[in-house]
Amino acid sequence: MNQLIIDQVIDTVMCKCGCLPVGHHSTSDDSTAYRPKEEAEHWTKYDSPINKLRMYMESKGLWDDSKNAAWIAEAKKNVMSTFGAAEKRPKPDWSEMFKDVYQKMPKHLIEQMTEMQKHVEAHKDKYPVKEYGL
Amino acid sequence: MALNKVRLELLGRKAQDVRILYNLFAKRTHFNYQPDEKCDIPGEKQKMNMFQAINNAMDIALKTDETAMVFGEDVAFGGVFRCSMGLQAKYGKDRVFNTPLCEQGIVGFGIGVANVGATAIAEIQFADYIFPAFDQLVNEAAKCRYRSGNQFNCGSLTVRAPCGAVGHGALYHSQSPEAYFAHTPGMKVVVPRGPIKAKGLLLACVREPDPCLVLEPKTLYRAAVEEVPTGDYVLPLGKADILREGTQITLVGWGTQIYVLLEVAKMAKEQFNISCEVIDLVSILPWDRETICQSVKKTGRVLIAHEAPLTGGFGAELAATIQKDCFLHLEAPVSRVTGFDTPFPHVFEPFYLPDKWRCLQGVKDLIDY
Q1: Which residues contact B83 (CB under 8 A, 6 or more apart)?
Q2: Which residues, other chains included, contact A55 with Cβ-Cβ below 8 Å and sequence gap of 6+?
Q3: Which residues contact A117 (CB under 8 A, 6 or more apart)?
Q4: What mean pLDDT is predicted for residues B147-165?
Q5: What's the whole-model pTM score?
């Protein structure tokens, strides 16, 4: 029936795209204030493209529960190890704070940066310089 | 914030320990809060932090003024900083309600409410988000009385917004926009330093016959705790507070910076035997020229400190007026220790803020001038 309509009636197609947040925007948000919890749950269960892809792959024999569990474990490991590696790196040199305000650093910013560099040098023990590498 | 939650979940059992450790480190601040030493307001007092005091002020405003309403993003459930907790349950959905995510609309609507004589207490969720409402504030609210030859006004509009550094706020959750609004005749701007001031100033603003902006330093919502009078009281707008008397240098600030300056005054006395007078400006517009200049004429030296960037910061206005009124009394140029002329940074915050070391150095430089 739908195919019939497409062949006989429609030569213009309108695509309506929407997005549905599945979780809260932030820890201070309560997304159930905007839509009922059931709506998001229903969508996640029946309309989520990710789930649909999984079901398709399972129907083709390309995926199963054990593959899923293994992938989740590997992904967790990847995230945590990347997190750990990133955390070990020092933060950028703190004088980066003065860069990229403009394309070319104006005189007054060079002045402020130089003054702060002198100040930090004179009070090194008061600032977390060790956390900021080069 | 969300990424940290993911991380803690993945860590499983260790999450609790990590959470506790994280909080210990996360609580390091660049200032040391101290409550007001005395409070001249009589009557019963109750221990409150700043968001509780603000909540109390709005409760009293809603109770004593039947036209009053409180609105903004997420205020219905209590607000992202808990300032409006319990108010909707107490006063109803037609007096305490959420607005769409539209700051221009929040203020525009507030102006309309005030135009017809009702009391509007509008919340902007973060001062960093106030700019879509800038036109409404500057071109409508501030000019309403003037352009109508006093036939109309929106004096019963009060806008509140959390401002200032909070340790991890970065570009869009740390700004102090007071200078933009100080430049707007027709508006009044105040910055409370703690619960007692916050409650009294907010009630004063709500009842003030001119549109007011209250910039509340967000890092003080929980950190600042005082014995707050439980009754209905107002504190004067346009009046600065001398928090510590001194003879050699006047230190001027507002909001969180006050606690940095109080500590600097203590260090200056202990380490160098320098006597500093510390003044909380409290009111940005109008500002207490008399108190500041009287102090500077006495000490001969002044250091102004604020988180907002140097160029065009409110310290510039203070400096210009001070040098005019006190020129012959000055022993040294007016000094400003402020945030740098960059957007408010994320991980570089410890190097950006006008901390006690920069301020103490400023004090020494003034004495040695």
Answers
A1: B51, B54, B55, B58, B75, B123, B160, B221
A2: none
A3: A95
A4: 98
A5: 0.87
Q: Which two tokens stand for residue B25?
A: 């480190």
Q: A34 — contact with chain B (CB < 8 Å)? A: no
Identify from B340, B353, B359 which residue to disrupt to test chain A contact, counting A C-beta atoms within 10 A and taking the largest count.
B340
Is B73 assigned a catalytic role? no
ipTM of the complex: 0.89
Signed CA dihedral, B3, B9, B12, B13: sign only: positive
By Cβ distance, the residue of A33, A97, A119 closest to B345 is A97
The per-residue pLDDT for B18 is 54
Per-residue pLDDT band at B115 (split at 50, 70, 90): very high
B260-275 pLDDT per residue, tens: 999 999 999 999 999 9
Calculate how close chain A gets to B23, using CA atoms only, in Å: 16
Share of chain B above pLDDT 70, in %: 93
pLDDT on residue B289: 98
Residue of A80, A91, A108 with shortest CB distance to B347: A91
- Distance from C-alpha of B151 to C-alpha of B140, rounded to nearest angstrom: 14
| Exposed/middle/buried for residue B201 (C-beta within 10 Å: 0-12, 13-18, 19+) | buried
Q: Which amino acid is at A19?
A: C
H helix count then E strand count, chain B: 15, 14
User: How many CB atoms neighbour CB B311 within 10 A?
Assistant: 13
Predicted confidence (pLDDT) per residue in B3-24, tens digit = 455 555 555 545 555 555 555 5
Chain A positions touching B170 (Cβ under 8 A) are: none
Give one DSSP letter per residue of B11-75, joined into a string. HGGGHHHHHHHHHHHHT--SS-----S-----S-EEEEEHHHHHHHHHHHHHHH-TT-EEEETTT
Q: Which of B103, B178, B216, B226 is catalytic?
A: B103
3-class SS letters over chain B:
CHHHHHHHHHHHHHHHHHHHHHHHHHCCCCCCCCCCCCCCCCCCEEEEEHHHHHHHHHHHHHHHCCCCEEEECCCCCCCCCCCCCCHHHHHCCCCEEECCCCHHHHHHHHHHHHHCCCCEEEECCCHHHCHHHHHHHHHHHCCHHHHCCCCCCCCCEEEEEEECCCCCCHHHCCCCCHHHHHCCCCCEEECCCCHHHHHHHHHHHHHCCCCEEEEEECCHHHHCEEEEECCCCCCCCCCCEEEECCCCEEEEECCCHHHHHHHHHHHHHHHHCCCEEEEECCEEECCCHHHHHHHHHHHCCEEEEEEEECCCCHHHHHHHHHHHHHHHHCCCCCEEEEECCCCCCCCCHHHHCCCHHHHHHHHHHHHCC
